[in-house]
Amino acid sequence: MLDSAALQAQPVYDDLHKALLEPEKVYRLNLSKQKLNIFPEEIIRFKNLQELNLSKNKIDSLPEKICTLAHLQILNVSGNKLKYLPDSIGSLKHLKKLQASRNNLLEIPTQIGELSNLEVLDLWENDIGIFPDELGKLKKLRWMDLRVILIDDAMQQRIQKLLPDVKIFFSPSCHCVTG
Fold first, then answer.
1. Which residues, 6+ apart, have CB-to-CB distance to 88 below 8 Å?
2. pTM assigned to the model
3. Could you say which of 19, 40, 100, 177 has the lowest number of CB atoms within 10 Å?
4. To the nearest whole number, what is the mean pLDDT of the chain?
5. pLDDT for residue 45
6. Where are the beta strands (DSSP E) in 38-110?
7. pLDDT recorded at residue 173
8. Cα(103)–Cα(105) distance, rounded to whole angstroms?
9. How deeply is 22 buried, as exposed, middle or buried, from its count of CB atoms within 10 A (0-12, 13-18, 19+)?
10. In degrees rounded to 5, what are phi and psi of residue 134?
11. DSSP symbol at 12
């Protein structure tokens, strides 16, 4: 497991086929803007992977097997077509940064509370209607973006109460009725 500085010093692979030639050397993989419609299952072969960028594709789901990427520290799936994050996301114990903005997420899985090292949670511009109490277990979380999500005043206050030490970005209240 690399610290932040050592991870940043590693090369970024941006070609899946080249990365597969030396899977044990792949710590950082950037497959953004590759017109991917599905999560490439080959990614699971990168056992040392610590940073994965799948942003700006058309991926509509992440496999439960993503949990096998045990060393993952940074996951960027922004700008896809995700409606749900897999329950197994909670198994990514080293995850520090989760970027899932500009998707179609409807809820946050309760397993999010198991991400004990999560510091940044970027969820802006989604359709999230369910914010589980387990968010309150994210003791290392420092920054969360929930802008461009319709959240009424009461729910914003509830989320802030769950995470009193977190800088949370909300859009102005929707003054909407939630069921």
1. 64, 65, 66, 67, 111
2. 0.95
3. 177
4. 95
5. 97
6. 51-53, 74-76, 97-99
7. 79
8. 6
9. exposed
10. -60, -15
11. E
Domains and CATH numbers, the chain: 4-170 (3.80.10.10)
CA dist 158 → 84, 91, 131, 137, 141 (Å): 22, 26, 9, 14, 16
Phi, psi of 85 (to 5 degrees): -95, 145
Instruction: For residues 43 and 20, give the distance between their C-alpha atoms in angstroms, rounded to a whole number.
Output: 9
Q: What is the per-residue pLDDT across 83-113, written as a single tens digit (0 to 9) for each?
A: 999 999 999 999 999 999 999 999 999 999 9
Amino acid at 78: S
Strand order from edge to edge, sheet including 12-13: 12-13, 28-30, 51-53, 74-76, 97-99, 120-122, 143-146, 167-170
Rounded (10°) CA dihedral 79, 61, 67, 44: -90
| β-pair partners for 74 | 51, 97
The partner residues of 76 in beta bridges, in order of sequence, read: 53, 99
How many angstroms separate the Cα of 67 from the Cα of each of 92, 125, 129? 6, 25, 25
